[in-house]
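== Item description ==
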Amino acid sequence: MKKIIFISEQQDACSWYRAHVPGVELQKRGYEVALVIRRDWALCDAADVIVFEKTSSGSALEDLVRYKEAGKLIAYDIDDNIWNLNPANPAYPYYSVETTRNNLAASLRMADVVTVTTPQLADAVSKFNRNVRIIPNCLPDENWNVGFEDDGVLTVGWAGSITHWEDLKTISNIIEQTLDGFPQVEFAVAGMASYPFSNHQRIRKLEAVKLEEYPKLLSKFDIALAPLTDDSFNACKSDLKFLEYAALGLPVIASKVAAYESSVDHGRNGFLARNPKDWLKYLRRLINDEGLREEIGAAARKFAESRFMSGNIGLWESALDLDRSQTEAAGSNNALSTTN
């Protein structure tokens, strides 16, 4: 039975979706899997496959070299085009450092296989490594079947991290106009301590939660928004935000950009907005039509079901060169071990 180690440098949403989620599903199929946040040579020495999840430190590169020389299969997973980060992005100071970029480039070149989230990102990293596999972000099956709390308020919502400040800023005027025009609506923001909007009594800030509780937080929304600026960095982004909302049966309005165009079937399972006029038009339609919200949300949920991890784990098995004949399920209650 092959042993697989996922190495991340921190516990965040990236390591959750690109290490923890596939790791749990692989474990269900009988593999021995562990998620390592810091060096654990005893675990790694015993592994057959080691996946480095967007590591870029000097020590991580040393580890990659060490295990490559030891004959382990080395995979390197990356989910962002860090070479085109906007200087306004909070991650820019770190990834703009030459040493960080050199470490990342060296890791990509040395890996046996590189896994990415989108075709656009595959193109961006192919200059470092020819063996690139596209494995889209997928959702853990067990976390996304939650009920809704009807509090009598029609809530338009957005959730994300501070790295999406510029994206959220693009719809600040839309939110303010919507709140002014619809007194029965409130806007909820989750994941930011502050937000790029003028103060309004019906803007509500939701406190951050653990990733396991994230679906329940999103269930407070009635309509969900997924704005993205149209730039070279976001051109490599995945449709994860739409996927999260869709899994809860939420009607979504998303920016008409590459990240969403292949997943959002405009007018059927969501709406794609090209400009402020579109954002206002689709928001008004959804606010005024409960039946449309339910129809669009149901279609979105159906799409999301195609992206649960249980139905896509074969992509990881193939990329990591695992022997599927050994994958007798070990039970669904196993917990993925995490070493800090």
